[in-house]
Amino acid sequence: MVLSKKRARHVIEEIIALFPDAKPSLDFRNHFELLVAVMLSAQTTDAAVNKATPGLFAAFPTPQAMSVATESEIASHISRLGLYRNKAKFLKKCAQQLLDDFDGQVPQTREELESLAGVGRKTANVVMSVGFGIPAFAVDTHVERICKHHDIVKKSATPLEVEKRVMDVLPPEEWLAAHQAMIYFGRAICHPKNPECDHYPQLYDFSNV
């Protein structure tokens, strides 16, 4: 049974309260580095990405530098990451698109971001919210698992349905905090196997809801 809107909001806000200082765990210094880091994080831990990006950004600090590199040169810096050959191909093409279509700048709209090679809805939402402060809600594996485990959405919900449900439940100013807190909650408490959510009864205290 999917929770009511008020109860779903209660659960998510209690998760935010558990991790009020949750911040992005990817290392970046500008919009281009954020975009690249999020692209690299697909099917890879943020910790692994953070080990690879210093060398990558030292070698290719700008879209211009990355666009003229070969795919093998890019791949050599990210070879310990999952799907690194595909990611190298996407990074090179994406860098060229930034130069050709956006004057070397990372665009701010979802439509423009999703026009870039290797950029899907989740990556676009992260760049918009973290990079530009534009309200958006990104759904990763942690967020999807938590929302299904806690009946915020039905078990068969797609990532887009999860995104729309959370955006309907929470005000826009809480979307980014919810995304960050859910990642921490998923790593520390709501594990894929043997989740420890029952140790936090406040999540299920609906007496004032």
Automatic annotation (TrEMBL):
The entry's keywords: 4Fe-4S, DNA damage, DNA repair, DNA-binding, Endonuclease, Glycosidase, Hydrolase, Iron, Iron-sulfur, Lyase, Metal-binding, Nuclease
HhH-GPD domain: residues covered: 40-188
UniProt cofactor note: Binds 1 [4Fe-4S] cluster.
Gene3D superfamilies: Helix-hairpin-Helix base-excision DNA repair enzymes (C-terminal), Hypothetical protein, domain 2
Enzyme Commission number(s): 4.2.99.18
Reaction equations catalysed: 2'-deoxyribonucleotide-(2'-deoxyribose 5'-phosphate)-2'-deoxyribonucleotide-DNA = a 3'-end 2'-deoxyribonucleotide-(2,3-dehydro-2,3-deoxyribose 5'-phosphate)-DNA + a 5'-end 5'-phospho-2'-deoxyribonucleoside-DNA + H(+)
Lineage: superkingdom: Bacteria
Pfam family name, one: HHH
SUPFAM superfamilies on file: DNA-glycosylase (SSF48150)
InterPro entries to which the protein is assigned, alphabetical: DNA_glycosylase (IPR011257), Endonuclease-III-like_CS2 (IPR004036), HhH-GPD_domain (IPR003265), HhH_base_excis_C (IPR023170), HhH_motif (IPR000445), Nth (IPR005759)
Family: Belongs to the Nth/MutY family.
Entries under NCBIfam families matching the protein: nth
Function recorded in the entry: DNA repair enzyme that has both DNA N-glycosylase activity and AP-lyase activity. The DNA N-glycosylase activity releases various damaged pyrimidines from DNA by cleaving the N-glycosidic bond, leaving an AP (apurinic/apyrimidinic) site. The AP-lyase activity cleaves the phosphodiester bond 3' to the AP site by a beta-elimination, leaving a 3'-terminal unsaturated sugar and a product with a terminal 5'-phosphate.
Name of the protein: Endonuclease III
